[in-house]
């Protein structure tokens, strides 16, 4: 028996060695050994993350920096690394990090656009490509994915996440983690992921970045935690705290979040980093007295590494001497940091090959995948039949986003180079005789003096394509907006083109859902493309020409007016839900009586509904959903719900439909959302083809945090919908006993 066991152990060791992985316990031993040799000063050095490159050499040599961010020059990275590895007393390598958010050189659509694909496989591929390119420049740690649930398009960072739905958010987050990290972190092309911002950052009041949030524990657990938990379980190596406070406690100083939930409840053993100076900012919050106090609170709350507050490096030794922070806490933090460095194989391979990036940046297969992702991410939100423009020969191309290589990359495209970006104008010139008349220079431009030229050009064309939207700078961090209409004179430009009487196609290239209701009225078709990245041009040209068929679906509710925000499909019902008979402003008689309007939950001016619901998106073809059949409408808590339906392509194009399954728990010990996305599938069908689709949903996935704050499935009545968006489908009842 003993011999068999030893043989099994030997085989396991050999297997791990052959794929380059070290076992957990081997790494733990190495960490303990190294930790035992470290002085307190050296430990604190590991907990210090600084922004910069070559000028950090001296600090690296003294062992006073554990990680750097914002340096992507391989030669500089090697210089800092050399100082750490060859000059510092213990030779601990530096961990090089960067915000690689939606691609490194080859820029993929912004994350909200990637979410619109409803295709975790292409998202995982994009993250893998980002890792291949970034690691070739020496970056082994990215601050992505951002998992913040975003229900308010005024918040500029909706661009960086997967939108409003916890299930979609979790799937996309897990896909990114897998793509960045691969199966083996020690592979030199793998990059540690960082799930951020823990937590609730997207719920900033009024959509104003960094603002206070008020989120109940139940809502955290039911809505804001799930994507983090899923990504943590998928092995995300690191986690970043958030800038915001929840109920008066800044995340960076929140022990309940960072210890009780993350470590004790979820059992996650990765490394926690602060956001940029989020420790220091606890002073402005009024939670800490001074920088020294911030370090004490952050470390005791569970933070391992400090990004750019300088508080740890300045005060931790004093705090330990004064007994305000224990060495045990310090060892915990340093252990997590060293463990990651060992897992990444940095001790064996600290340096980057300075010639590597030239071989992988913008590789043809990277560009091909970026194009595919951009195609899948575009959402067709209106089409009266003009798209695709298959028969047109001469087209007018106009608008400030038609030839804006920097802007179409979107926010957080630090390392994408606009010289490599292919714009819609360039790509459409390969397909059509193009008359190019920009009309406006940039999205905020109000100068209409070129409009006459645009109108004349339109009269000479078979059709007009107007590219409007937002410049990259208008979304992303600290770029909140209170108005969500198209900026500048863009709506007027669309209206001007519409006067030509020619078919008008509008393509919106933006970082968030904008309020485009009035623009819809002035066009025949509209494609919505969240900043589509390097290959946005060819992707959109293929869609316009009909070489590709739109399949994207909205990952956020589209509003009619910014005043409706926050607005999301999976909300709780009020006691007075809208019933569709509400009176709007123009129909209210003079001297109307106080209670004459029906007293339901709506706006007198915009009514109730969104412009487009979550999950919505058209195709050039059409799909017919057959009546769903529920295999077993009475289920036990260990059963699996199975619902099948026929999906038929009833149009003329081959196309892909994202079929969606929604569920409602009709009565709960606490109010449950009106619908929740539980499954989806991209189904590709030839014209006339029909396929049986089956969704399987374990009843266990109907669990939620109930009145007693327990995660349970409550027996009772449920209903489900199978549909192409969150507002369609016929409800079908089922029961959980
Ligand atoms: C602040 C941002 O909130 C965070 O997402 C980012 O990763 C860091 N800065 C580092 O650049």
Would you give an account of this structure?
The protein has 22 helices and 27 strands. The protein has 737 residues and is an alpha/beta fold. The longest helix has 17 residues, at 2-18. The model is unreliable at 1-19 (pLDDT under 50). Bound molecules: 1-deoxynojirimycin. Residues 99, 143, 196, 275-276, 477 line the site of 1-deoxynojirimycin.
Low-confidence stretches: 1-19
Radius of gyration from CA coordinates: 27 Å
**Main sheet properties:** 6 strands, mixed
Q: Beta-sheet strand percentage?
A: 15-25%
Helix vs. strand class: alpha/beta
| Annotation field: number of helices | 22
**Tertiary shape:** globular
Distance between the termini: 47 Å
Average pLDDT level? 96
User: Could you tell me which ligands this complex binds, including any ions or cofactors?
Assistant: 1-deoxynojirimycin
Give, in spatial order, the strands making up the sheet with the most strands: 11-16-15-14-12-13
**Helical percent range?**
25-40%
Total beta strand runs: 27
